[in-house]
Amino acid sequence: MALPKHASTLERVWHYTYLVICVAIFIFLIAPILVIIPLSFNAEPYFTFSDKMLKFDPEGYSMRWYDLLLTFGMQAPEAPRDGSWWADAWSNAQWIQATKNSIIIGFFSTILATTLGTIAALGLSRPEMPGRRAVMAILISPMIVPIIITATGLFFFYSSIRIQDWGIPYLGIILAHATLGIPFVIITVTATLVGFDHSLTRAAANMGADPVTTFLRVQMPLILPGVISGALFAFVTSFDEVVVVLFVGGLDEQTIPRQMWNGIREQISPAILSVATILVIISIALLTVVELLRRRSERLRGMSPG
Amino acid sequence: MTDIAQPLTTADGKPLKGALMRAQARARRRAFLLVLPLLAFILITFVFPIGQMLYKSVYNEGFTWQEDVTTGDRTPIMTNLAAWFDANPPGTEPNEEAYAALAADLVVLRELKAPGQAGTRINYELSGSRSMFTKAARSANKLEPPYKEALLDLDKDWGNPDLWQAMRGASSSYTLNFYLAAIDRERDADGSIVMVPENRQVYVKLFTRTLTLSLLITFLTFVLAYPIAHLLATLPLRHSNLLMILVLLPFWTSLLVRTTSWMVLLQSQGVVNDALVGMGLLGDDNRLQMMYNRTGTVIAMTHILLPFMVLPLYSVMRMINPSYVRAARSLGATSWTAFRRIYFPQTVPGIGAGALLVFILAVGYYITPALVGGADGQLISNLIAFHMQKSLNWSLAAALAALLLGGVLLLYWLYDKLVGIDNLKLG
Lengths: 306, 427
Description:
The complex is a heterodimer.
Chain A: H1 9-39, H2 51-54, H3 64-71, H4 83-92, H5 94-124, H6 132-144, H7 147-161, H8 171-193, H9 199-206, H10 211-239, H11 243-248, H12 256-265, H13 270-300
Chain B: H1 16-58, E1 65-67, E2 74-76, H2 79-87, H3 96-112, H4 115-125, H5 130-138, H6 147-154, H7 161-170, H8 177-182, E3 185-187, E4 193-195, H9 203-234, H10 237-252, H11 255-266, H12 271-278, H13 294-318, H14 322-330, H15 335-363, H16 367-372, H17 380-389, H18 394-418
Antiparallel strand pairs in B: 1-2, 3-4
Helix pairs in contact in B: 1-18, 2-3, 3-5, 4-5, 9-10, 9-13, 9-15, 10-13, 11-13, 13-15, 14-15, 15-18, 17-18
């Protein structure tokens, strides 16, 4: 990117203008996400920086919105914070309930999506797979079809088979979220299988390994980074999904996004910003893990740029 | 040496060709069996429900069948009227026979407690007619011949030719009327297709708005993504991987979080307005209205969809050999000419991939317009949700969804043809 010595003045001016433009676009990308972090510590119920915050006066900052997350919905939020207070929070606080639900739904839908998706990706990456293109198009389509159409279809489908009466909690949402997560698993796992050396499996078979052993001892370690990033994608998809939950979820099936959605639509308070901050920190952590996995996978397959 | 063409055989004496074909068939079967569980899962939990929903756009039995919720018994309703419609062509003036059929059907409705259901079905096409059914069914037993006068005495609107046309359309469970409604058309009294009155034309306008806003958003993401993708592609990998995190972090952050941030920024008492007022660029009393309107939708969606444009552009630009541009420069091209005639044409595949992806995602967007869109920033998805949850006109919602889905699938097919789904990458 360095400018050559012979560049004309105009080129120099343009070069620096270009860099300024790029910096501005990066700020546009990242600032909206970072700006909510300090605002979530606002001592006032406003969505903008108060004078005290701008002067870095400690009085302008507080943890009150994080505290509200814990106490909201509790039976006795004012009680002294001993064991029974925490027990109350654990079983009654609305955000804690929503977190539990989100984790349960996310966990099971991720397991389902990752298992089915990984097995299918193995088949899809074989050159002899019949109708590969069409099948792939169908399997990726949940990512492309507008979410409102998926949610509407599932609403009718679940009410026609009366899934609520089956007695398995969250079943409808788990199945739907698995469907939405599958495209991500397929994409990441087939990407790791590109350039997979099939003579390795043949060599394993040659030495007497049955297909299951071959898969577990030879293929799996090589594609594991892709499987884990696929699973993380599927989990994030489920953890962030609100429309399907709104359409097919029962009243008691509150999740974090649904609670946020209600909060934003009804009484938007800075408590939403503290949830958002926590979610941003989680996504930074996940991004780091996926980045590390991607590099590891590239190194394993000898595709590392150095 | 004999030169009789001996067919090649395997060790156990079978023809080699057959053995090979069997082995290949086995390999194909094995590959397919691996995919089968997932394919079945997707077909059951995704493709079938959507098909079932689309069926609702052409099938509505509100005016033809009544189902008892507790027992599940199904009874045909409005049979006399349907028979009269079958016997008489569209546009026939309803005679005494027709009114008698209607009166007989109203008695059935009253017994089944179904006038609300039948009235709702007609109400979709002609608002205000639901109460006519409930009212007429209440006094159905007291109706006496001549039925025409009796019904017109109850409500003179029973003579409305539009009402009769609506009932004719609804008397068959299969109908395309919801598709007509979804493109602002209706059938007039003689059954020919006409535009609805201007004050009720909403859907075509909304489809147009969805398309123009999506195009605008696609264009904006292109304008913003091109410079940074170019920067990322020309920097050494060590630096570009670091900067790439700035693109991937928004991609990984919850959609609701990003939408919330934009609400915080764009509010009239929000950060952007406060900053502008603080810098003296804006008077305190004329703060910019950037949210709950089209501007809010466009800004927030551009930000949210930007990574989907950067990533395909970046992967194409990475592959471009820099020596082409150098060659052009050494042959005397100015940097602008070299960019315009050498560099830019090589990035067109990336632009196509990114633009199609962003456009496909933008057309079906729901959450962001619902939260920051206000009244005039709503897209077609929001209207589908409205008909699903508020007006409860599910067949119309299904028809709108079918039109949207048709458009999206067409673009998806195009994407597969031009780019290939295999080339979809996530960071």
